[in-house]
Sequence to fold (163 residues):
Amino acid sequence: MSPNTCWLCKIFRAEENEISSKVSLEELLQWSQSFENLVTSKYGPMIYKTYLKTEHSDENIEFWLACEAYKKITSQKKRISMARKLFTNYIQPQAPNEINIDSPARKAIMRNIQEPTQSCFDEAQRIIYRHMERDSYPRFLESQFYQKLKQSLQTNGNKSVVT
Fold:
């Protein structure tokens, strides 16, 4: 199927163009310095998520970002609601976006889900962070996706033209 007729390709190009037009070359170059720079930057998580969709593993960054938001919840009622959503979407066996964590981490969350604490997803989040840092992050930096964006920003300054 040609890239011009592939509906998925069109979606990725549209997302890439929308986000990449806001990314500075300085920010993009920081991403190659460390995985932490990528996930804590303004546009890094969105660009990285778009790349992870091509690897069918965007649930990892979604879970990691959801955990970051979860840790900021101060209301116990909201924390319980969000904990259940995280559990249902990412943790329970056969979840729609099930993440790859070890059995002890999964069981610990299952024990604590009735009265979730601010840190009840920390171990699972650390595991996913390490997976991304070791596996998909190096591939991201070597990908055509990242290299094309970098080349475009170097050629056009901050006026990214990615097609």
